[in-house]
Inverse folding.
C-alpha cells in the first residue's frame, strides 16, 4: 500500500465562511456582546533574547570549560551586545537536569546562570543518505554510528532517524531510547541506491579515456571523433549528477525546514559518501589531462553549486540547526588507478574529485558551527567530538534588536587574549515574524506533535470520497470559538482577521507544502457570538495510509496563536 500524500491542489479551500449561515440569520435584537470600542493597542518594542551555543576546544579537541562571562565578546552585525545569560554546560549539568526534571534558575550578579535556558531540549536527526553512499562503506560507517548512539543518546537528548531512499523517509520518530535507534540503523543495510550506478558510469568513462589515450599514443589511428564523443558524455554525466544533487539538497533542506519551529538545540548528523560541490569536476579534469584539452573546464562554472550550498547552510544556521557530517568513504588513497588499469587515471584529477565530494561535508559543518569527520577510516574520534558538542558547551544569551521582522543577522563571538583554542558557533540567527513562527511551528508539529491550543481549535474529519486512481478526497472541517477571536466594531459589523496555516504528513515522512490563508470575519454587531464557532471547510487530496494534519490559527489583532492536530487513516 502506498502512503504518499499527493498535494496537488490539496488545500482546495472550499472556503465559504460557514459561520455566516448561522450568524446572519439570527435576530438582531439579541444582546450585543461587550466590545471594548476604546480598547488601546499601544505600540510596543519587542526585545528578542537570542541564545547561542558556543563550543570551545583546545588543540587536541578536548572541551575547554574554565572560561567566564568576561572572556567572551559578542557582536550582532558588528555591534557589541551585552551578555545577559551565561552558563557552562557539561555532562554533570545534563545529569542534574535529568534527575531533577525542571532545571532551576539562579541569579548571579545580574546575569542569569540557571539551567532553564542553557539546557534546552536537544533534537538530533540522524540522516542516512542511502542514495549517496556506497553499500560497502555503509556497513563500516553504520557500525560506528550504532556505537555512537549507544554511548551518547542520553535524555534530554532525543534522536530521529531519516533516510534518503528514493524519497525522504522517517525511519524512527524522536526518541531517547538508544535501543530503538540502533535497531532501526541495523536494519538499513539492504537498500541499494544510485551511488553504485553513478560510480560504475564514472569508472567506465575513465577507462574509455585511458583506452583512447593509449590508442592515440600508439598511433593506432584513433580520430578526434572519439575525443568529441567522450567530451559530450562527460558533460552529460555532469548534468545527470547535478540533477541528482539538486534532489539531495532539496531533501536536506526539507529536514532543516521540519526542524525550524522546534524549540531547543537542533542538529543533523549527515552520513554519506559526500555530495559534489561541482558535479562532474573530477571527470572534467581527467579528460583535460588525458587529451590536453582544457576547454572542458569551462563547464565548471555552469555546474558549480556554491550558491545552493550557501543557501542551505545559511538557512540551517538561521534556524539554529547545526550540521555534523560523516564521510562514509574513509581515507582516500589516490595512486592513479588500480593494478588492472593499463594506464591509470591521473592522481591529481582523482584528488580533485575526492576533494570535490569531501568539500561539501566540510562546508556544511563549517558554516553551521558543526564538525566534519572526513578522510579517515576510523570515525570514532570525530564522533567523540560530536558527542562533546551535545553535552559540553557555553550557553550565551543576549538581547537582540529588530525582533519580529524575518530578518537575518550575523553573530560573531570572540575570546580575546586566549590562544591555542578553537571556537565554533552558528554564524547567523533570524528574527522571525509571528506569522513565520506559526508556519514553522505547523511544520515542526507534523514531526513532534503540538500541545498549544488556547483558542480551542477543532479539526473534524468527514467521510473520504474516491477521487482519481488510488487518491481520496478527504473533507475536513476546521473551527474555533468565536469568543476566542477578537472582533472590533466597524460600522454596524464586528470585524476580525485570522491567518490560517495548515500542513500534512504521512507515516512514511512525506509532507505537504504548508499552506497559508488570511480570512476576514464579519458578523452583525447585534449577534451573540458567545456560543458560536467560526467554521471553514477544506479538502485534502491524499493516497491511502495514515496521516497527520496540523492546523495553526493566528489572531492578527491580539497576535494570539493556537494549534491543533488530527490523526487519520485514509480511506
Amino acid at each position: 500500500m502506498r502512503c504518499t500524500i499527493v498535494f496537488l491542489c490539496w488545500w482546495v479551500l472550499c472556503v465559504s465562511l460557514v459561520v455566516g449561515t448561522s450568524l446572519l440569520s439570527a435576530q438582531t435584537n439579541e444582546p450585543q456582546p461587550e466590545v471594548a470600542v476604546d480598547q488601546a493597542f499601544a505600540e510596543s518594542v519587542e526585545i528578542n533574547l537570542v541564545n547561542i551555543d558556543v563550543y570551545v576546544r583546545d588543540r587536541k579537541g578536548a572541551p575547554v570549560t574554565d572560561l567566564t562571562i568576561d572572556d567572551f565578546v559578542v557582536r550582532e552585525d558588528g555591534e557589541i551586545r551585552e551578555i545577559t545569560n551565561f552558563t557552562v554546560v557539561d555532562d554533570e549539568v545534563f545529569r542534574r537536569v535529568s534527575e531533577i526534571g525542571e532545571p532551576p534558575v539562579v541569579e548571579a550578579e545580574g546575569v542569569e546562570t540557571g539551567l532553564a535556558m542553557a539546557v534546552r531540549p536537544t533534537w538530533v536527526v540522524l540522516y542516512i543518505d542511502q542514495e549517496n553512499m556506497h553499500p560497502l562503506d555503509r556497513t563500516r560507517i553504520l557500525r560506528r554510528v550504532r556505537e555512537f548512539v549507544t554511548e551518547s543518546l542520553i535524555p534530554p537528548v532525543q534522536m530521529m532517524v531519516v533516510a534518503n531512499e528514493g524519497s525522504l523517509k522517517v525511519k524512527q520518530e524522536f526518541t531517547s531510547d538508544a535501543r530503538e535507534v540502533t535497531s532501526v540503523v541495523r536494519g538499513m543495510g539492504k537498500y541499494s541506491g544510485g551511488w553504485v550506478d553513478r560510480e560504475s558510469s564514472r569508472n567506465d568513462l575513465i577507462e574509455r579515456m585511458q583506452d583512447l589515450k593509449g590508442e592515440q599514443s600508439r598511433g593506432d589511428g584513433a580520430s578526434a571523433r572519439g575525443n568529441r564523443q567522450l567530451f559530450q558524455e562527460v558533460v552529460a554525466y555532469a548534468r545527470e549528477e547535478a540533477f541528482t544533487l539538486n534532489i539531495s539538497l532539496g531533501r536536506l533542506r526539507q529536514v532543516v525546514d521540519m526542524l525550524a519551529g522546534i524549540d531547543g538545540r537542533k542538529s543533523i548528523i549527515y552520513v554519506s559518501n559526500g555530495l559534489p560541490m561541482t558535479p562532474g569536476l573530477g571527470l572534467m579534469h581527467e579528460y583535460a589531462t588525458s587529451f590536453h584539452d582544457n576547454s572542458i573546464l569551462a563547464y565548471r562554472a555552469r555546474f558549480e553549486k556554491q550558491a545552493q550550498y550557501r543557501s542551505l547552510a545559511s538557512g540551517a544556521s538561521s534556524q539554529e540547526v547545526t550540521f555534523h557530517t560523516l564521510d562514509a568513504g574513509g581515507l582516500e588513497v589516490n595512486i592513479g588507478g588500480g593494478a588492472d588499469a593499463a594506464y591509470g587515471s591521473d592522481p591529481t584529477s582523482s584528488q580533485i574529485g575526492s576533494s570535490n565530494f569531501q568539500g561539501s561535508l566540510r562546508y556544511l559543518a563549517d558554516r553551521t558551527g558543526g564538525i566534519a569527520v572526513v578522510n579517515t577510516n576510523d570515525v570514532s574520534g570525530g564522533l567523540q567530538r560530536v558527542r562533546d558538542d551535545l553535552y559540553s558547551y557555553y550557553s550565551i544569551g543576549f538581547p537582540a534588536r529588530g525582533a519580529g521582522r524575518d530578518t537575518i543577522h550575523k553573530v560573531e563571538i570572540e575570546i580575546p587574549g586566549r590562544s591555542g583554542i578553537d571556537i565554533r558557533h552558528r554564524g547567523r540567527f533570524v528574527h522571525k515574524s509571528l506569522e513565520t513562527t506559526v508556519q514553522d511551528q505547523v511544520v515542526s508539529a507534523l514531526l513532534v506533535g503540538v500541545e498549544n491550543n488556547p483558542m480551542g481549535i477543532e479539526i473534524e474529519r468527514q467521510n473520504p470520497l474516491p477521487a482519481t486512481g488510488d487518491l481520496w478526497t478527504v473533507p475536513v472541517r476546521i473551527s474555533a470559538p468565536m469568543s476566542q477571536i477578537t472582533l472590533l466594531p466597524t460600522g454596524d459589523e464586528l470585524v476580525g482577521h485570522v491567518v490560517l496555516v495548515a500542513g500534512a504528513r504521512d507515516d512514511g515522512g512525506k509532507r505537504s507544502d504548508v499552506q497559508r490563508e488570511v480570512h476576514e470575519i464579519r458578523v452583525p454587531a447585534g449577534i451573540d457570538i458567545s456560543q458560536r464557532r467560526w467554521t471553514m471547510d477544506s479538502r485534502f487530496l491524499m493516497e491511502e495510509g495514515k496521516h497527520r494534519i496540523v492546523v495553526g490559527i493566528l489572531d492578527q489583532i491580539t497576535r494570539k496563536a493556537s494549534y491543533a492536530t488530527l490523526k487519520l487513516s485514509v480511506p
About this structure: The chain is about 30% helix and 30% strand.
